[in-house]
Specification:
Elements: H1 2-30, E1 64-75, H2 82-85, H3 97-106, E2 112-113, E3 125-126, H4 128-134, E4 140-145, E5 152-157, E6 166-178, E7 183-197, E8 209-212, E9 215-217, H5 218-225, E10 229-230, E11 240-241, H6 242-247, E12 254-258, H7 274-292
Antiparallel strand pairs: 1-6, 1-12, 2-3, 2-9, 4-5, 6-7, 7-8, 7-9, 10-11
């Protein structure tokens, strides 16, 4: 009787421990060393990779009683905007906005458009190779002296795109009043990364250079943006996607241009210094005041 009891306890212990050991072994086998972040041993992340863009409410032209197109500048160095800029190098599945857009353009899933169109109407397509030229990442030919023959031969020095120089984003958006829903709403139309850099000859870094790289249609980019997570400083288990950042407007920027009769001129064409910020605030207040004046209090 005593031996039977000991045997039963041993079988029970083996029944409990074997599945646990098998689970640990299976987890160890399926862990990818290149992307492992430590969380893979706790749970498998699936939610963010299966996300779809948040659907916009349907809008009819007949219901739009007022609209205004504006261009907004987002400085990625601001604390609120830093989740769009970091990490400058990919960490596991996390990447920054510019690297995600470049990857989508390179793979052919997203069409880029030239910045030479002053009205940003997305009519002139551009290529990934042209974007690399704007990054000065196509490789440079330099002369190399052959110590044996004494002749100079040319070779191509490969360089990488310095995506960490993209400090700013230009966002084209439309504000409109939908009388069917009685709301003032906004839709982002396009995104344009801006490279901020100094020329190699500018040793003292006195003349800062800014170059618009390309435009993408935001509605076309949403499927890619919805499946890439953005760091949440308050909760590692509740990572937002890039699409949620823009949809919920978790960013800060100031208006640099509005649709107008003067060839859609920018604010800097008729204002200088602090006056540009005052003009940007005036346009913001105009949009807010329009909605405010629709109601009685």
């Amino acid at each position: 009787m005593k031996k039977t009891g000991i045997l039963s306890i041993a079988l029970l212990v083996m029944t409990v421990t074997l599945p646990v050991a098998a689970q640990v072994a299976d987890t160890a086998k399926t862990t990818d060393p290149s992307t492992w972040s430590g969380l893979d041993m706790v749970y498998k992340k699936e939610h963010i990779f299966n996300k779809k863009p948040i659907e916009y409410p349907h809008v009819r032209e007949a219901d739009i009683m007022w609209s205004k197109v504006v261009w907004r500048m987002i400085d990625l160095r601001e604390k609120m905007n830093q989740p769009l800029y970091y990490p400058t190098k990919a960490i596991g599945d996390r990447t920054n906005l510019i690297d995600l857009l470049l990857q989508s353009i390179k793979e052919g899933g997203l069409q880029a458009y030239s910045t030479m169109d002053d009205n940003n109407e997305f009519k002139e397509p551009t290529t990934y190779d042209q974007i690399m030229k704007d990054f000065e990442a196509q490789g440079k030919k330099i002369g190399v002296l052959d110590v044996v023959t004494g002749l100079t031969d040319s070779t191509t020095l490969k360089t990488e795109a310095r995506t960490d120089e993209v400090y700013q984003l230009m966002v084209k958006e439309m504000w409109f009043f939908d009388r069917k829903r009685s709301v003032l709403d906004v839709r982002i139309i396009g995104i344009c990364p801006i490279r901020v850099f100094f020329e190699p000859e500018d040793v003292n870094k006195e003349n800062i250079q800014k170059k618009k790289l390309f435009w993408v249609k935001y509605p076309e980019a949403r499927p890619f943006l919805a499946q890439k997570e953005v760091f949440n400083p308050y909760n590692d288990s509740e990572m937002r996607s890039f699409d949620e950042i823009f949809y919920k407007r978790f960013f800060h920027g100031f208006i640099v241009q509005e649709s107008n009769v003067y060839n859609n001129r920018g604010v800097t064409d008729y204002a200088l210094g602090v006056e540009t910020l005052q003009e940007a605030q005036r346009i913001e207040n105009m949009i807010f005041q329009f909605e405010h004046d629709l109601w009685e209090y």
